[in-house]
Amino acid sequence: MKKFNLFIEIVVAKRGDLQEAINSSKHFGIDIEGKVCYEPFIIHDILIYKGMPDSVTPIELALGKNYQVVLDNERVLIKAFSNWQEIIGFNAQRATYNDTTSDGVDELCTKEMESIGWHASEFGITYRTLVDVLEQMCEGTLICIEQEEPYQFSGLGFVNNLDEARDVLFEFCQKEIKKLIAENEDYREDKLSDDEREAAEFFKAIA
C-alpha cells in the first residue's frame, strides 16, 4: 500500500473543475488525486474535502479555514492536514480499516474479513498484525497524518481489492495457525479449547 501523508502532501486540483463544482450548489468532494467528484461517493473515493461552499465565496476561501489554498494559474494547490478530524469523518465509512484512535485497529470493513480477525484472535493474531499484512501485501492507500518529532500517527487504510485482501489474510492466518499447532506445545491439537478448535477448523488448519 502507498502512504499519503497529509502533513507533507499537496493536492492539485483543476481550477475550472473546482469553480464549476462551487457554482453548481451541489455537495461535492475532492479526492487525493485532485479530482472533483459528486455524491453519491463510491468505495474508492478517498476525499480530502467534502462540502457545498457558497458560490459567491472566492475560490481560495471556499473550502474553509482549515485548508491552505494557493491559486497557480489553472491549478489549485491544497494542503488539508488541519482538517484531519473532518477528513476521518467523511472517509471512515468507506475505509478498509480505521487506525485513528488510541485503541488502534479493532475492526475490518467486511463481514468476511471481520470473521477472519475474530477467529485469528484465538491464536494471538492481532488486528495490528493483520493490518501489517495488508499494508505489505495488498495494493491500496493509507491516508494519514504522520510526523516524526514528536511522533504522531493516525490513518485510514483503503485496499483496492477486498476479495484479494480477504484471501491474503486467510492464507496468512492458516499458515501461522498450522505452524503454532505443529510447533507450540500450548496449541497442540489435543490441547485446543473449543474456541481454538473452531478457529482452527475455520482456517482449515486441522482436519
Account of the 3D structure:
- The protein is α+β, with helices and mostly antiparallel strands and 207 residues long.
- It folds into two domains: 2-89, no CATH class; 96-202, no CATH class.
- The protein has helices at residues 15-23, 84-91, 111-120, 127-137, 162-183, 194-202, and strands at residues 2-5, 11-14, 28-31, 36-38, 47-51, 68-72, 75-79, 97-99, 140-147, 152-159.
- It has a four-stranded mixed β-sheet with strand order 1-9-10-8, sandwiched between helices.
- β3 (28-31) and β4 form a beta hairpin.
- α3 packs parallel to α5.
- The two termini are 34 Å apart.
Question: What is the secondary structure topology, with strand pairs?
Answer:
Layout lengths: L1 E4 L5 E4 H9 L4 E4 L4 E3 L8 E5 L16 E5 L2 E5 L4 H8 L5 E3 L11 H10 L6 H11 L2 E8 L4 E8 L2 H22 L10 H9 L5
Parallel strand pairs: 1-9
Antiparallel strand pairs: 2-7, 3-4, 3-5, 6-7, 8-10, 9-10
Helix pairs in contact: 3-5, 4-5
